[in-house]
Amino acid sequence: MIRFAAVISCLQVICSPALALEQPTVWRDPETGCAYLLTPQGGVAPRLRRDGTADCPDASASSRFVDDTMRGLSRGLETLQRELEGLRERLRKETPAERLEEKT
User: Fold this and answer.
1) pLDDT by residue for the chain (104 residues), tens digit each?
2) Which residues pair with 28 in a beta bridge?
3) CA–CA dist 51, 48 (Å, integer)
4) Phi/psi-derived region of residue 53, left when phi > 0, alpha when psi is between -120 and 50, beta in every other case
5) Residue 45 and residue 34 in contact, taking contact as beta carbons nearer than 8 Å
6) Cα–Cα distance for residue pair 48/56, rounded to 1 Å
7) HEC profile for the chain?
8) Phi, psi for 56 (deg, rounded to 5)
9) Cα 57 versus chain centre, distance
């Protein structure tokens, strides 16, 4: 019984700061339209959507731009890798004598 009382008192001590916090309120900036979480204790944090982007009207447009840019860069990198593989295969097929003839 003493262990049970000790465990309960330890849990109360550990959980009391978390239970003392009040729920944050959502505030939307009138200039940007972005949402923020405000706590009564004075904390401010950006509100995020489920996908991890900021809760702003233009957040999806900028993430779409980044996605398109990354997609274009990966396509360019794949094309460069294919070209290098083709060059590597061509150099393997040529004999050393053929390579010397091209240099002169």
Assistant:
1) 888 888 888 777 786 666 666 778 888 888 888 888 888 877 888 888 887 777 888 766 556 676 778 888 889 999 999 999 999 888 888 776 666 666 65
2) 35
3) 8
4) beta
5) no
6) 9
7) CHHHHHHHHHHHHHHHHHHHCCCCEEEECCCCCCEEEECCCCCEEECECCCCCECCCCHHHHHHHHHHHHHHHHHHHHHHHHHHHHHHHHHHHCCHHHHHHHHC
8) -125, 150
9) 19
Structure tokens at 89: 């295969």
CB atoms within 10 A of CB 82: 10
CA distance 56 to 27: 12
